[in-house]
Amino acid sequence: MTESWATFGADLHLDLSAGRGLRAGLSEALREAARSGRLAPGTRLPSSRSLAADLGIARNTVAEAYAELVAEGWLTARQGSGTRVAERARPRRSATAAARVRPPARRGPAYSLLAGTPDLGGFPRAAWLSAARRALTDAPNEAFGYGLDPRGRAELREALAGYLARARGVYADPDRIVLCSGFVHALALLAPVLRARRVREVAVEGYSLDVHRDLLTRAGLRTAPLTVDGAGACTPELSSGEAGAVLLTPAHQFPTGVALTASRRAAAVNWARTTGGLILEDDYDGEFRYDRQQVGALQGLDPDRVVYLGTASKSLAPGLRMGWMVVPPGLLEEVLAAKGRFDWASSALDQLTLAEFIRSGAYDRHVRGMRLRYRRRRDELLAAVAGRVAVSGIAAGLHAVLDLPAGTQDAVLRAAAWHDLALETLSRYAHPDAPVPPREALVVGYGTPPTSAWSASLAALVATLS
Would residue 19 be called left, alpha or beta, if left means φ above 0 and alpha means ψ between -120 and 50 degrees? Predict the structure, then answer.
């Protein structure tokens, strides 16, 4: 069985070892895919514009590679029919040889609308490379050492302090920023600090990521669910519980997509001030708001009681493994002790590159561009499912919640499997001790598909709901 173009296109990497150029590398990758049968005869390739955008290369490069393969007979190009893999005679194989050949293993469904991942094809490769060159040129010799400050590079902490204050309303002294390799790493550092402070229970949102809950549980901390409704997490419930800390996603609750209301923000801050508790604020996609003014960070209400946590995973790419904490003054020494005497977490050169990327304005430009892209996708999603399901959580972020008619969820999941579409339900994120049964709904990550697969993924979703 051959793979669909959507799967192949998402996994295509140009082999540039041995000094080959982009066009030659792309030509060889497509030639080998057609030769091996990974791209079956008749498979329609994306337009040169779409593939170039997906791979982050020039459109002319793709067009030249297509033309070369058409001339060689590997591809055909007809007006109105697009570019396709040509029909080719296949050599006869003996029965023994055929038995030894195994089809390539499938990498999962052809289409994915799972939440939590940005469009990886949108990573700004050229701008990032330019920033990396400048950062490498200007890097002091000591940047190539072990990293003597566990907080991370001062250059990035200073750049982040300015950006977070401007874009998210965070009070961020560079000396109170601690760099880490993502949100999970930050939470892993904070969990033993909470235990050492005799915290035994952390309140979490009733819908939340199990990986975060499991991490806290493994650290010896209980997790207690807060009710989540149209106003966000029900923070007044904190006053009647035993939690010494609470983990919240106030700007864009994950996964329901609602923002924590002003009254519930105030309730959380008042609880922290009264009890000495801590608020852990996960601001995972705060930059991507579409229909109204930005919702500022909760940390701005009380920097002494809120640990602000952010990452580049949604704005740039999770593969960078770049995150940060803005730590209250009274907690800083304990967090640094948990992290250790050296900064083992992330590459100093990556930190310097991100610092340059922010200082040059490239980060702001990239976020603005991706915000427009995701908004268009959100609008296309809304138009496609209009009249079929109710949609919520659409004011911000990279996903939406599609509420299903009662009793239809299992049938929808079977239909999704039939259409080779990966989907998740809202119940997948429900805390096992939540008092209210989860809604029958889908969490649809419209930021996930690469550009070349977005239309097909949306079509598969519509077919699933039909």
Answer: left
Report DSSP letters for 224-263, one per residue: EEEPEETTEE-GGGGGGS--SEEEE--SS-TTT-PPPPHH
Calculate the CA 270 to chain-centre distance. Answer: 32
Q: Mind listing the domains of the chain with CATH numbers?
A: 5-106 (1.10.10.10), 125-361 (3.40.640.10), 364-465 (3.90.1150.10)
Q: How many residues does the chain have?
A: 466
Nearest one of 282, 290, 245 to 397, comparing CA atoms: 290
244: CB partners within 8 A, 6+ apart: 194, 197, 198, 199, 200, 201, 202, 275, 276, 277, 278
> In this structure, how many other beta carbons lie within 10 angstroms of the beta carbon of residue 273?
12
Contact 246, 282 (CB under 8 A): no
- Which 8-state DSSP code applies to residue 438? P
Q: What is the pLDDT along the chain (466 residues), one digit of tens a residue?
A: 344 444 555 455 444 344 457 777 788 888 888 887 778 888 888 888 888 887 778 888 888 888 888 888 888 888 777 888 888 634 444 444 444 445 455 567 889 999 999 999 999 999 999 999 999 999 999 999 988 899 999 999 999 999 999 999 999 999 999 999 999 999 999 999 999 999 999 999 999 999 999 999 999 999 999 999 999 999 999 999 899 999 999 999 999 999 999 999 999 999 999 999 999 999 998 889 887 777 889 999 999 999 999 999 999 999 999 999 999 999 999 999 999 887 777 899 999 999 999 999 999 999 999 999 999 999 999 999 998 999 999 999 999 999 999 999 999 999 999 999 999 999 999 999 987 788 999 999 999 999 999 999 999 999 999 8
